[in-house]
Design brief:
Layout lengths: L3 H11 L24 H11 L4 E5 L10 E7 L3 H8 L14 E8 L2 E9 L4 E14 L3 E11 L3 E10 L5 E10 L5 H7 L3 H27 L19 H8 L2 E9 L2 E14 H8 L2 H9 L3 E8 L2 E10 L2 E10 L5 E8 L5 E8 L4 E9 L7 H7 L3 H26 L2
Antiparallel strand pairs: 1-2, 1-9, 2-8, 3-4, 4-5, 5-6, 6-7, 7-8, 9-10, 10-16, 11-12, 12-13, 13-14, 14-15, 15-16
């Protein structure tokens, strides 16, 4: 987040579904309803929360043309401790590295108005928020409503819900929606690309903010693990696609496997809205699938051999060359894509489909890649900010699912 505004320009190139999600009219992101996860949904996701945060990115709907992000994480701290961290914005700069200041303007009962700012070497950003704290306790949990009234990232709303899971454990559900369309000049220009940019920003902000809240609460309880672990071999995660079918009707899921500060892998699951045979035809075509997976403007087959299909890909980003070679290994089951050279040359991606009753395809993709394995500018942008790096990975994997779905529906086959 310390270099957040500049990074948004890079994110536009990864948001390949932007053209397929044109704006249909403005809504007030401060007033639109924010969804959450029901007790049944939290129970369904509990096995994944043991591994790391979970993100549900809702689809566009008739009530609002802007995407919402629902983010959940298990925190090794009592609900009261987590609530104390969230409910005192004046303390945020002491543990949120991006923030340079928080100026509490007024406190009126449960409402706290505050301005925030953060700075980088070339510019700074500011915003105005109002937080409403609702009555809560250790039995029923806590709730906080934050409305962004204006500033360099536009307007929006955030809803924090803290659910007790025992005397020393809690689950936080963090729902957010941002609208950049009336923000500063740079963010307005980015927002013209479509809702994919709004969604990407929501994912990045949610990731960094949530993980910093989680870390601070656990530090206060002495349970935070601030260590790096050895990377594990990429393996197929356990995902019950049948059990998740209804939830995937609301949006796509991103499941993260994090050990301490180390991202082991990230998984995205979603419903394709098309039959399995149609989805797999796109996934088995390197030029189609290459453009879907990398959100690139071009993907070209270089060689076919018994090892697989080698293809080149490229994304034309101003001032940055992003591209390289990858190898796609077709299979009746798991489809493998591995980086060979260039950007993300050490990345590994795996994809498979699940056939739902009626023939609709569910898609699961799991991957491991290091965003530092990128051009120099991108490495500088994420350097020193582990949480932003995690957000970059999550947003990229989510965009893969959205872009693949778009390719499938545009293929006409």
């Amino acid at each position: 987040m310390r270099r957040f505004l500049t990074v948004l320009i890079v994110f536009v190139a990864w948001s390949g579904t932007a053209l397929a999600e044109n704006q249909t009219g403005q809504v007030d992101a401060r007033a639109a309803r924010l969804g959450t996860l029901s007790p049944e949904e939290r129970k369904l996701l509990s096995v994944h929360l043991l591994q790391g945060p979970v993100i549900l990115t809702e689809f566009q709907n008739r009530q609002t043309d802007l995407p919402a992000v629902i983010y959940a994480a298990q925190i090794q701290a009592p609900a009261k401790t987590v609530a104390e961290v969230i409910g005192n914005p004046g303390d945020y700069p002491t543990f949120m590295s991006a923030l340079t200041s928080v100026d509490v303007k007024s406190v009126n009962g449960p409402m706290t108005a505050f301005d925030w700012s953060w700075g980088v070497s070339l510019f700074s950003m500011t915003g105005r928020n109002v937080m409403t704290t609702y009555p809560g306790n250790d039995e029923r949990g806590y709730r906080f409503d934050i409305r962004t009234l204006g500033g360099d990232l536009g307007i929006g709303r955030v809803m924090w819900r803290v659910y007790p899971e025992g005397p020393k454990k809690s689950v936080v559900v963090f729902s957010s929606r941002l609208d950049m369309r009336n923000a500063n000049y740079i963010t307005r220009q980015l927002a013209k690309e479509g809702n994919a940019v709004n969604r990407t920003i929501n994912v990045a902000v949610a990731m960094v903010t949530l993980l910093e809240i989680k870390a601070e609460a656990e530090k206060r309880e002495g349970t935070h693990v601030n260590a790096k672990f050895r990377a594990k071999p990429l393996r197929r995660p356990y995902v019950n696609m049948e059990a998740l079918r209804k939830l995937l009707g609301r949006g796509d899921l991103v499941l993260m496997d994090i050990d301490g500060e180390t991202m082991q892998s990230v998984t995205v699951v979603g419903r394709a809205g098309a039959r399995v045979d149609k989805v797999r035809r796109v996934m088995l075509d390197p030029e189609e699938f290459g453009q879907s997976m990398l959100h690139g403007s071009c993907a070209e087959i270089v060689e076919r051999s018994n090892k697989g299909v080698r293809f080149e890909w490229e994304i034309p980003i101003p001032l940055i060359h992003v591209g390289g070679e990858m190898m796609l290994r077709p299979s009746p089951t798991v489809i493998s894509v591995d980086g060979i050279s260039g950007t993300l040359s050490r990345g590994q991606w795996r994809f498979d489909t699940h056939r739902y009753r009626g023939g609709e395809a569910g898609v699961m993709g799991w991957a491991t890649f290091d965003p530092a394995d990128s051009p120099k500018l991108i490495r500088k942008l994420i350097a020193g900010n582990t949480y932003f790096s995690h957000g970059f990975v999550a947003a990229t994997q989510l965009a893969v699912m959205r872009s693949l779905r778009t390719r499938v529906h545009l293929s006409g086959r």
